[in-house]
Each structure stands twice: as structure tokens, then as C-alpha cells.
Amino acid sequence: MSNPFTGSSRPAPGTPNLPTPPTGWPIGSYGTYEEAQRAVDHLADSDFPVQEVTIVGVDLMLVERVTGRLTWGRVLGGGAASGAWFGLFVGLIMGMFTPQGSWIAPVLAGLGAGIVFGLVFAAVGYASTRGRRDFSSASQLVAGRYDVLAQPKHAEQGRDLLAKLAMRPQNP
């Protein structure tokens, strides 16, 4: 929310930062984010006021790529590994506050407890799915196209610069 008395587009302290639709006129449309980034980079290299440019992802999709099959071995191995790292961290913290020469016991205790808790939490989490999700995946938000918008007073100049970019041969 803008404060009309300050002339700033920053929200006043204590007000929520609510999502707002983008403003500006389209000056280019691209099939990938990389191409839109390249266009804005070209504008920046041409001394265009890029602070007035927005890249807008249109036709958003959530893409979930399956990365592998989950088995009890993978689940327990991952739980033990993550528990070990956390236990090692806690053990090292505890070891810093023990008398000199006896820091190894807290580190080993933290490591052991971390492994046990990591195994237990991983087993409980996996068992609760009852086989409904026996795969691991990574999710990504992507757009069908990426539009580059510029404020109206610079839109024509931006279109001209991007048209020149489109006429240049692509580097492999």
C-alpha cells in the first residue's frame, strides 16, 4: 500500500505487503525466462531505465518432476543423515560449553541422539503415507510465456531496442 503523502511506493511500516498486479505496456514476449532475462539485460546495456521494467510470467504451471522411487532404505538413510547433521550441530554447541578436554562426549551424544531421532521421524512420516506416495520429486513453478513490461513513457523506446535485439543473430 502506497502512502500518498510521501510519494514513495514502499509500504508504510506495519502495513502488509499485499500482492499487486504489474503495471506497464508489453514491449516483448518470450517463451522462456532466460530469453526474457536476456532482453532485459540488453535493455540495461542500452542505458534503458530498467528500474521501470517488469518480467511477468503468464499461464503459470506447477511442474513436479519425479526424481526417484522411495523405499524404506532410502527413507531411513535420509532420516539418519539429516538427523546426524542436526545432532552433530547440537553436540558441537553443547561441547563449546563443557570444560576443556571433555568436548567429545557431548558431540558423540548429540550425533547418536540425532541419528535416532532422524530415523524415528523419517519412519513415522513415511509410514503415515501408507504407500500413497512412494516417490520423491521436485516441484517448480513455470510459466507458459514471459512478458516484459515497461512504463508507458518508455515503452516505444523499449520496443525499438528489443526489435533490434531480435534481428541480431543468436549466439550458440
TrEMBL record:
Annotated Pfam families: YflT (PF11181)
Top-level taxon in the UniProt lineage: Bacteria
Biased composition regions of type Pro residues, renumbered to the chain: 13-24
Chain intervals for the UniProt region annotation (Disordered): 1-26
Keyword terms, alphabetized: Membrane, Transmembrane, Transmembrane helix
The General stress protein 17M-like domain, residue ranges: 27-114
Chain ranges passing through the membrane: 75-97, 103-127
Official protein name in the record: Magnesium transporter
Source organism (scientific name): Saccharopolyspora ipomoeae
Taxonomic placement: Bacteria, Bacillati, Actinomycetota, Actinomycetes, Pseudonocardiales
